[in-house]
């Protein structure tokens, strides 16, 4: 079993990746998240920031420590073969990993989708508690007449104990290859 720090956005892909890590025999020992400094949505090329206000609830739901760092860079090198670029938002991940003194042996890999849809997972078999949205508001990020963009800002959330769920009964099959 390999202990891992999971870089987690709160979306479905992060949650799926988390399930695959556990199915492959790894132990998640902490969560990591990169967030914007003073805004709801950074529109980052690399990281999902929509819903970042609720990330603390994941740590509570999983009873794990959470390490967070502010994204200070922006997308500068978007080529397939990334090379260290001063001021690139990817470097913020390296700063976060340095702060929590991670070893390269943990194989941390961050992969952002940069897609059109962002998700925020409210429950997962690995959660000891579920996340509940009490209040939210819609924010228009771009009022483009052809393709407006909006997101949901969580204004009040909490975690609740799950009843009748046994973590030992969870079975997940790891995917060994991508088709």
Automatic annotation (TrEMBL):
Ranges of residues in domain Diphthamide synthase: 7-84, 98-146
Entry's EC annotation: 6.3.1.14
Protein name, as recorded: Diphthine--ammonia ligase
Region forming the signal peptide: none
Gene Ontology terms for molecular function: diphthine-ammonia ligase activity
Catalyzed chemical reaction(s): diphthine-[translation elongation factor 2] + NH4(+) + ATP = diphthamide-[translation elongation factor 2] + AMP + diphosphate + H(+)
One Pfam entry name: Diphthami_syn_2
Pathway involvement of the protein, from the record: Protein modification; peptidyl-diphthamide biosynthesis
Any one GO biological process: protein histidyl modification to diphthamide
PANTHER family to which the protein is assigned, alphabetical: DIPHTHINE--AMMONIA LIGASE (PTHR12196:SF2), DOMAIN OF UNKNOWN FUNCTION 71 DUF71 -CONTAINING PROTEIN (PTHR12196)
Family listed: Belongs to the Diphthine--ammonia ligase family.
InterPro entries: Diphthami_syn_dom, DPH6/MJ0570, Rossmann-like_a/b/a_fold
């Amino acid at each position: 079993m390999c202990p891992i720090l999971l870089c987690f956005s709160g979306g479905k892909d992060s949650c799926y990746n988390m399930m695959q890590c556990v199915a492959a025999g790894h132990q998640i020992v902490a969560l990591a998240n990169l967030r914007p400094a003073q805004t709801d949505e950074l529109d980052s090329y690399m990281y999902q920031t929509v819903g970042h206000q609720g990330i603390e609830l994941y740590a509570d739901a999983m009873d794990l420590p959470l390490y967070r760092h502010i994204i200070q860079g922006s997308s500068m090198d978007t080529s397939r073969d990334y090379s260290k670029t001063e001021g690139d938002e990817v470097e913020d991940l390296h700063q976060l990993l340095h702060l929590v003194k991670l070893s390269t042996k943990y194989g941390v890999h961050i992969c952002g989708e940069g897609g059109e849809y962002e998700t925020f997972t409210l429950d997962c078999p690995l959660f000891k508690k579920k996340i509940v949205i009490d209040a939210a508001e819609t924010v228009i990020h771009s009022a483009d007449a052809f393709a407006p963009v909006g997101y949901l800002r969580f204004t009040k959330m909490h975690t609740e104990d799950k009843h009748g769920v046994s973590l030992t009964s969870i079975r997940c099959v790891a995917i060994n290859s991508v088709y």
